[in-house]
Design brief:
Helix content: 25-40%
Shape: globular
Structural class: alpha+beta
Order of helices and strands: EEHEEEHEEHEEH
Low-confidence stretches: 81-99
Strand content: 15-25%
Largest sheet: 7 strands, antiparallel
């Protein structure tokens, strides 16, 4: 539908079967993509909700790798790397693991959806957002929260402001859309090259021998 598709130069909706942008995001122009890439390369501070129930929601810097497609995150500068207050050995281990767990780089080209916390969850009828957002995001912050949905996980985020949330959702939707379009084009070209190569190597064409005529002696 138009609310989940980008528009081409003729304002015609273009959707991908592999990706669903955030509701209302229809602009994937070069300008939007360049802006979000520039912001993310410099780092954008957000609250990231951990996947484990033992992992608290923490401030993180979202970062885009120089390749333009790999997303990761790091602690903000003023956040301590360790916790000093614990009551049991078990809690100490859990907190240490949650704080020092290294972020797994994610390929944005494999993201299947940018989903606002108020958007329907297709896997849970009658619910919105994601399981992590529903369990860790306060209702008061839902308006500025969203998730990036990947095949085996989600990255659940609460922005600092509603405006920042809107900019991130629109920018990431555009960037992921363009990455997947580029990936589809590379795949198409590769298939074309393979087809041409197969056609040439499998051809039964045999060049005819050059016939040399004998000159009559006078």
């Amino acid at each position: 539908t138009g609310s989940h598709a980008f528009l081409d130069r003729n304002k015609t909706p273009i959707s991908l079967p592999t990706f669903k942008p955030a509701t209302g995001c229809t602009n994937a122009s070069d300008f939007v993509v360049r802006c979000i890439a520039s912001r993310l390369r410099g780092g954008v501070a957000v609250i990231k909700h951990g996947r484990s129930r033992w992992c608290r929601s923490r401030m993180r810097l979202l970062l885009l790798h120089t390749d333009g497609r790999t997303l990761t995150w790091t602690p903000v500068d003023d956040e301590p790397n360790t916790n000093t207050t614990t009551t049991t050995t078990t809690k100490t281990k859990r907190r240490h693991h949650a704080t020092n767990h290294k972020a797994t780089p994610l390929d944005l080209a494999t993201c299947s959806e940018v989903r606002h916390a108020w958007s329907p969850d297709p896997k849970c009828h009658g619910f919105t957002g994601t399981p992590i957002l529903r369990s860790k995001c306060d209702a008061a912050n839902a308006h500025k929260s969203f998730a990036l949905v990947f095949p085996k996980r989600t990255v659940d985020i609460t922005a600092v402001t509603a405006d920042q949330c809107k900019v991130l959702m629109e920018g990431l939707s555009a960037l992921i859309y363009r990455l997947q379009i580029a990936e589809m084009e590379r795949t198409r070209l590769k298939l074309d090259e393979d087809h041409i190569s197969t056609t040439l190597t499998g051809s039964s064409f045999t060049p005819s021998p050059i016939r040399t005529g004998s000159r009559r002696e006078m």
